[in-house]
């Protein structure tokens, strides 16, 4: 898909496609998400999109420079879905937990797309709104700017990394998923406690816990670490009055 996007004023297709759909960026992104969900990364082609939309593939160039441009739009759509309906409450810890869990859930709702998009920086509207909102929560809580930026970085990267990891597992064929989980019973649970006492002592716990995403607990650990770095305003006042 070459770089030959149509200028903005000329983009709108006023005639419906063969399927009666008027093209727009949102229609194309939603269709691309559906195709990737059904067929994986190989579905992200102009030919397949055109066929699914009932439009000439060249019409997609009116909206996107390239398939990579479309992929960035998909990533930004997932970020937007994560933010939909979220409002800060003033409780920084609750707000950051909600943001992290929303990011994770939004990407896991589209695991094939998450594998493609979780590592991308879009520079688009939804991402910009998310960066602004998270930094706002942190700065309002009293974190200095340098700390706020580092915490933002750690929070978002952790959310996206777990989303990509868990999405890759969900994208596996069902027999492969089942086989991976069975390893905890068929291999680890049968290890000799004389040679592997720690695994033997926790084998049942391991088998149960490894069926779940590690993200919610990892997020709790991160929030605990963040709380430990929160400046103490009373300590600052005590130093000032000393």
How would you portray this structure in words?
The protein has 242 residues and is mainly alpha-helical. The radius of gyration is 23 Å and the shape is flat. The chain has helices at residues 25-39, 46-53, 67-83, 92-108, 111-117, 125-141, 145-170, 174-186, 197-209, 215-228, 233-241. It folds into 2 domains: 8-65, Arc Repressor Mutant, subunit A (Orthogonal Bundle); 89-231, Tetracycline Repressor, domain 2 (Orthogonal Bundle), CATH 1.10.357. The protein contains 11 helices and no strands. The longest helix has 26 residues, at 145-170. α6 crosses α7. The model is unreliable at 1-11 (pLDDT under 50).
Could you give me the name of the CATH homologous superfamily of the largest domain? Answer: Tetracycline Repressor, domain 2
Largest sheet, in brief, is:
none
What is the count of DSSP helices, taking H or I runs of 4+ residues? Answer: 11
CATH fold-level topology of the largest domain: Tetracycline Repressor, domain 2
Any idea what the CATH architecture of the largest domain is? Answer: Orthogonal Bundle
Keywords:
mainly alpha, Arc Repressor Mutant, subunit A, Tetracycline Repressor, domain 2, 64% helix, 0% strand
Itemize the secondary structure elements and their pairings:
Blueprint: H1 25-39, H2 46-53, H3 67-83, H4 92-108, H5 111-117, H6 125-141, H7 145-170, H8 174-186, H9 197-209, H10 215-228, H11 233-241
Offer a quick outline of the entry.
With 242 residues, the chain is mostly helical. It has helices at residues 25-39, 46-53, 67-83, 92-108, 111-117, 125-141, 145-170, 174-186, 197-209, 215-228, 233-241.
